[in-house]
Amino acid sequence: MTSRNFEAESLIRFAKKVSFPAILAIPLIGGAVAASWSTAETAQAEIEPAGAPAPVAAPFAADDPPVETSAEGEIGRETPGPTSMAPAAPAALQQAALPAADEAAEEARAVEEVEPEPATIIREITVAPGDTLMNLLVKAGAERAQAHQAVTAMEPVYSARHLMPGQEIEVAFADSGAAGPGALLSISFSPNRERDIEISRSSDSDEFFAESIDRPVARQLAYAEGSISSSLSVAASEKRVPNQVLVEAIRAYSYDVDFQREIQKGDSFEFLYEIFVDEEGALVRTGELLFAAMTLSGSRTELYYYERADGSADFYAADGSSVRRSLMRTPIDGARLSSHFGMRKHPVLGYSRMHRGTDFAAPRGTPIYAAGNGVIEHAGRKGGYGNYVRIRHGGSYKTAYAHMKGFAKGIKKGARVKQGQVIGYVGSTGRSTGPHLHYEVHLDGKQVNPLKVAMPRGEKLKQSEMADFAESRSEIERQIALAQGGIMMVQRACGPQAEVVEQGSAVDKDC
Length: 511
Known about the structure:
This protein is an alpha+beta fold.
């Protein structure tokens, strides 16, 4: 038997089992055969007993020899003879029939395979004072058990206790129709401009999965300079210097400068600092203060931020000496000097007596810092001092802090503290007429003027570090030169319409 008759017989068997309402073009080796079956013939083929000889007259010409089959359905030998085909169907019909059938089948399969997305209900909620995430989710329509599961899943990446009033949260539920929101599906919010928090699951049978997604931020350098007419704080605010940068500058200079008495009209400042912005140019956060210069009474002092090989960082003068001294003269930020060291009329007792410290007026609760490294000798009540802390430093120095509202965590007798560590908060305990810090420096057991006593400088960079420090300082000076020439550009705006300015900085209040 030839291959051609074998293929024809296979096609005939296939045709008997499949119902086609129209003409089907079937390609064969060496040509094509057009075959058609009526519905009646197809039905008859379906009811014939198994193993019966299949009629083959329909698709072939009358003079073609029949194909013999055995009772078991095996194909017999072919008798030699002509093999001409019946006239084929029109060419256009052959070309159109198969693609049309294929397209219809594909469309049917696509309808079956593509499942519609489940409908969801989106609700936006805003955190108010006293709210908890658990209660907010329940009020929005979540079942208490599901809300608990979601909050528990979130804890490893973000604590619900850190949510602040005004925080906006988007909650998604499955849409259960007229019955209202169904299963809780997802919770999403942005605690800040640096990251997004998402808690989600695919269906109500899955567990919640929480993740923290960092947003891309870009580092930029901002430069600000200005003249002082009343105070450094006012002048810096006019130039839109972020408060964090101003505080860092005051701390760096507080070892040598009395900001209440030594600042005069006409003095000036310069700051170079880092800012980090999001994709829209909005300020995300402020980075390090890299350079600060202050000109006071015609004398200019420059400070450079430098990180050492061991990871420690500080401000250094151009010769590599640290600005840090053993003790801070003003262990508080943004306070007003309200009373000097020396004789004065006591505001409570009403008569003149020696005032053996310096008073800094500040709002109740303002943080108070340890003036230097040391060990706490006393932490508790002490007569007219109220809440009082005294720290023993290296050498012959001690410092004392009085009238505090309360103590920071871990502040007790015998505890070690580091310079700049918060030890308590401004209050008005003891013999006091209002919230302020009474600050004392003891030298060899005697109280001395904190603003006048000589303070030894901190350590100087090692000779092996000076080359690297010089390279870092040179790069900072190059950036300053670019800024002063108006080349460095800083974005100051929020949203897509970011205003680009030559000198200035980006701050939250510009938004």
